Amino acid sequence: MQDLILYSQISAARHTQVLQILAGLTASQPAPLLEQHLVFEQIKLPPASKKGQTPQAQRRTYQHLIRRPQESTSWKLRKAEVPEPGVKQILSQSVVEITLPEAELGKFRSGSEWYKFVSQYYLQGHQFVQGNVVVMVNRVYPAEASSGDPIDVDAPTTVSLPPLDTSGSYVIEACVRLEDGSTTTLRDQATKELLAFADSLKGAIDLRVPDRLALDPRIKGT
Asked: What InterPro entries is this protein classified in (predicted)?
């Protein structure tokens, strides 16, 4: 899959106003959003995928397990590549999201030789949809430490902890997801739709391309 993304950031003081703007533009009410993210460090490298490549030549990454407690969804593994270089108007990032069966979840449990738990956090906010553009307005909240394996601990349906960003600002993400990012025609259409959406918000919300290396999922120095 390929995600085409634009971002913005707004102050807490503008939050209600921005939700009203997006509700008017999309002709829909904001849908509550809560995502639980577990972050794991890769310990064991998989077999080399390229001819002549040794495991030592590969770089370890952070992997995210994600679920939406309000929807009682299963854990999904999200793997993201470094966003493509040279793309000026949007951020283009190859991603894989798969629902993990119980057997695969074992690789992320305590004592596994594959992954080591690092941290967890929540994304809480609201979501809008217009055409193929999905818009999330959210903040990151640190999660309280749990006494058991974080995969098995029941998640709350709302988060009351202070946000990670002490200024209280919100992040806006506008994304179009393509099942096949290699199809030029579909990619061009998706890009036009995302840019048209951003253009319709000019003067109210400034959607822009972030630093691509800030979204590098690899662990430095490994």
From this structure: Mediator_Med18 (IPR019095)
Query: Chain centroid to CA 89: how far?
Result: 19
Domain 2-45+59-212, classified CATH 1.10.3720.10, yes or no: no
Domain map of the chain by residue range? 2-45+59-212
Nearest-angstrom CA–CA distance, 2 and 31: 24
For residue 39, give the nearest of 123, 136, 133 by alpha carbon. 123
The one-letter amino acid code at 191 reads T
Q: Where are the alpha helices (DSSP H) in the chain?
A: 15-26, 102-105, 184-200
pLDDT digits (tens, 9 = 90+) for 123-176: 999 999 999 999 999 999 988 777 788 898 887 778 888 899 999 999 999 999
Return left, alpha or beta for 69; rule: phi > 0 is left, psi -120 to 50 is alpha, else beta.
Answer: alpha
